[in-house]
Amino acid sequence: MSRRPTSSLAACVWIPLFPLRCEEARHEGLAGYPTALLATDTTRKLWQVSPLARHAGVKPGMTVSQAIGLCPTLRLIEPDPVHYDERFANLLSALTEVSPVVEAAELGLAYVGVDGLEGIYGSRGKIIEALKKTLECWNVGRIGFGPGKFIAWVAASRAKPGEAIVVALGEEQRFLAAQPVSVLPLDPDTHRRLRQLGIRSLGALAALPEAAVTAQFGALGKRLWRLAAGRIAEPVEGCVAPEPIVAALTFFTPVGERELLVHSLDQLIARALKHPRRIGWRVHAVRLRADLECAEVNENAGRGAACCAPTNRSWLVNVLLKDPTAAADRIAAPLRTRLEQSPPTGAVERLVLEFTAFAPGTAELQLFARDAQAAARAGQQHALQSAAREIRMRVKRSCLYHIIEVQPWSRLPERRYALIDYEP
Amino acid sequence: MVAPARAPLRTDRLRAVNEPRQVAVELNADGEPIAIRRSRDNGGGQETTSAVVEVVLENWRIDDEWWRQLISRRYFAVILEGGARVVLFEDLVTNEWFMQTP
Fold this sequence. Notes:
The structure holds 2 protein chains of 2 kinds.
Chain A: E1 6-7, E2 9-14, H1 18-26, E3 35-38, E4 46-49, H2 51-55, H3 64-70, E5 75-77, H4 81-98, E6 102-106, E7 109-113, H5 118-121, H6 124-134, E8 142-147, H7 149-158, E9 164-166, H8 172-177, H9 188-196, H10 202-207, H11 210-228, E10 236-237, E11 245-255, H12 258-273, E12 281-292, E13 314-325, H13 328-341, E14 348-360, H14 372-395, E15 401-405, E16 417-421
Parallel strand pairs in A: 3-5, 8-9
Antiparallel strand pairs in A: 1-10, 2-7, 2-8, 3-4, 6-7, 11-14, 12-13, 12-14, 15-16
Chain B: E1 14-16, E2 21-27, E3 33-41, E4 46-64, E5 71-80, E6 85-91, E7 96-100
Antiparallel strand pairs in B: 2-3, 2-7, 3-4, 4-5, 5-6, 6-7
């Protein structure tokens, strides 16, 4: 809705295994056991694994039966993505107290723009102290500080829990050269190929000619080389978060039928679209969350592993619409797909829909719809242009014309007005 | 009328509005139209339609542009049977009749 604030100097705040840490914070004593979070889309596989469980050989992606075979005392936890999302939102909110430029990367990982903060806090050390204060309740939080997001991230990933690593300007290349290639945003195949080529550090990668790396790995290779050489310093981009539009439905009895959920979803979308703040704006991002019926004991309890009881469970889907829209069907389509592909793992007690980001104007012919006046205010001209473009694409010629005055004073009627193609 | 588009106007893209269409006209003794006949190409051949003039509302004459190509017309605003309101004019240079909307 407005231009994003940016900052070239970045601090990376990272809490590894954030969802698992949320569960440990919620269930006292859990940290002392080997634990694993189940995947959000299936309860048969593991999503995140605690260091204790990893020590016993349990790895993310393993099936539950494999994991229990390796570690019979493993505590399994069903995921509660809504809770993790709320905790992370709280963390972001705390970070915005330190800097107005905060960019969320993923659960537990955020970048803070620190350009100009020294003038407020006095020194770099005091900025780091302020950031550490936001992580007080997370004793495993790490902080990296440097020019650009990548260097800040690498620094955070190298820092010890509760500590910070600062990469000063001019020291980027020396710092990066000693880091392993695993800090790069790599897919497993590229990682394997780099290892097979004997490239184990960023320094080794940066020592190769850029053209050679590009020839071997394409555009990805070029980006990797530039990251490794410290040639890319992506700024932190803060976002202006609008207040979401929320519509919620609490079921009298928990609902497990998908058709009923889809029907409820349609109702929620219709209700949210009618919200006065939505009028004149197209929806860009949607979040659908569900509070699930509480489960007392996991099905694997009889095999030696038990969930923490009672377990708070939830289900969460975030969808970014490629083309912002105000059409209910187009908003519902990706959510329905997600309901089909990875449905909630239990009966739903409460379903909540949120419109979390918006785009101005309207691409549909909303000006002919019920909210015509508001839509017209926001972008009637834009809507007409889009409609004209679509018509021309469909019928291969322009069928819309302006009527323009030529000689309105003429006594000859055919000379007063003319038509001209309407071309946005 | 909608607001002009941002694209600049080009006269070669202009299309005429309300162009006169040639018709055949029957006149009464006073020289006023009493019926019109119009031929139209319907794709497979010529289709002729006719209509009776119910009322002549008014008439006027225009003589203009004598300095380049003379325009000399005698206009009749009429109502056809069925209620359509049209303007008929006789081109006094060629003695042809035309119809257009008011």
